[in-house]
Amino acid sequence: MSFKDLGLLNEILRAVEEEGYSEPTPIQAQVIPLILAGHDVMAGAQTGTGKTAGFTLPLLHRLRASSSQAKRQSPRALILTPTRELAAQIGENVKTYGKYLPLKSTVIFGGASMNVQTQNIRSGVDIIIATPGRLLDHVSQRTIDLSNIEMLVLDEADRMLDMGFIHDIRKLLSLLPKDRQNLLFSATFSDEIKKLAAGFLHAHQTIEVTPHNTPAELVSHLVYPVDNKRKRELLTFLISSNNWQQVLVFTRTKHGANRLSDYLHSHKITSAAIHGNKTQAARTKALADFHKGAIRVLVATDIAARGIDIEQLPHVVNFELPHVPEDYIHRIGRTGRAGKEGAAISLVCIDETQLLHGIERLLKRKIQKMVVAGYEPDPSIPAQPIFKGRNQQQSRGSRYGEIKKQKPTSSERAVEGRFRTR
After folding, report:
1. What CATH number is given to the structural domain containing 226?
2. Does 230 lie in the same domain as 134?
3. What CA–CA distance (Å, rounded) separates 63 from 132?
4. Considering Cα of 109, then 110, then 112, then 117, what sign does the dihedral take?
5. Are residues 356 and 246 in the same domain?
6. Buried b (16+ CB within 10 A) or exposed e, 306-335
7. What confidence tens digit (pLDDT) does each residue in 42-51 have?
């Protein structure tokens, strides 16, 4: 099957061809015809499956082909996404694939000028790509009118729920016209996602390209047992001895990301850290430098990394295992893409044994372990328990804070207040 077989407008096909694509990915081949036919869709797809184009292409087609061609001052399509990086990435996709169409779009998220965003909105746009908190700020200040929305996309819905956006999403849903097309994309179909979907999808079609929580088959998994205090040394050794040139490394905390990036720099490995305490300009520059190979290592927290989309990223390293096993799937989903093999490497200390077991249960297999000579774990070191309840609460609060450290929105301040009172 080719993109031409899907019935998309010639202007869109031209833009797709110029990007070097001729055949749709499995998720695109299944969802595009359903969206073009006007169905509500609930789609499950991991990162790297081409889901963004899967909803962008038919959205552009339907807006252009709509019988209502009169110029509007209010948007006709709304794409909600959890982070500013992901919003920016989707915005670029919309511009790229819609460059031959008379449709306008804009991206709005926290940390950027409200006045500039307001000017863009008032100039007349068809498509809004937004994070929930900043969009609600515009709603509260009456700088945006959502009464003419014809299409709604919730992208990475599972992450939005993880980050505490459920109340914001429900409030926004109540502001939209009932007669609209709804599209929900999520890497996982948890009970919470199904409950959310049941509340606003109508006679929807469900598509799940890969089995629930299954990582890419092209990804190899490897665990290096090591004492916690020697993780930085081992990571430096692995990068240098194997001559890895492009490595995405995950830490649990923002301060940990900074410390690791500084350590790598001091050992002549170019790196940068991205997290919620970094300015948007700094994060954008770090991502751009990583894309073009100006830095070898990008150290990121889970939320800050959501917008990273590199087609042939060879190595993802879990410097620290995530508290939630499903986050392992999200992390490693950035390698083993576009038919290329990838490696998911985890540095695991004795404290993380139970976290590793949780990941292996999710994967339904044991992960190969390899001890590096000279970095053997000290058997006399006792495990320090990771208090799940406390850390999950901290994780939830810090995750939410990842995207709002610079300038929290009103709704974000309300949620942060709820966390602080716990």
Report:
1. 3.40.50.300
2. no
3. 22
4. positive
5. yes
6. bbbbbeebbbbbbbbbbbbbbbbbbbbbbb
7. 998 766 678 8
Tell whether 191 and 80 lie within a shared domain: yes
Look at residue 200 and tell me if it is in a domain. yes
Does 387 fall in a domain?
Answer: no
Lowest mean pLDDT among 66-70, 88-92, 204-208, 383-387: 66-70
* Tens of pLDDT, residues 320-352: 998 888 788 878 877 665 556 778 899 999 999
**Burial label, 60 (beta-carbon count in 10 A; 0-12, 13-18, 19+):** buried
The candidate with the shortest Cα–Cα distance to 102, out of 58, 70, 129, 132, is 70
Whether residue 52 is found in the same domain as residue 201: yes
Same domain, 342 and 397: no
0.90 cut: is pTM over it?
no
Q: Are residues 224 and 198 located together in one domain of the fold?
A: no
Tell me whether residue 375 is in a domain.
Answer: no
Mean of the pLDDT values across residues 308-331? 82
Domain range for 399 is: 392-420
Residue 248: its pLDDT value, please?
92
285 and 140 within one domain: no
Instruction: Look up tokens 């036919």; give the residue.
Output: 37
**Selection from 30, 40, 15, 187 nearest residue 103 by Cα:** 15
Are 403 and 82 contacting, i.e. CB atoms less than 8 angstroms apart? yes
Place of tokens 């969009």: 135
Same domain, 234 and 106: no
Residue 104 lies in a domain: yes
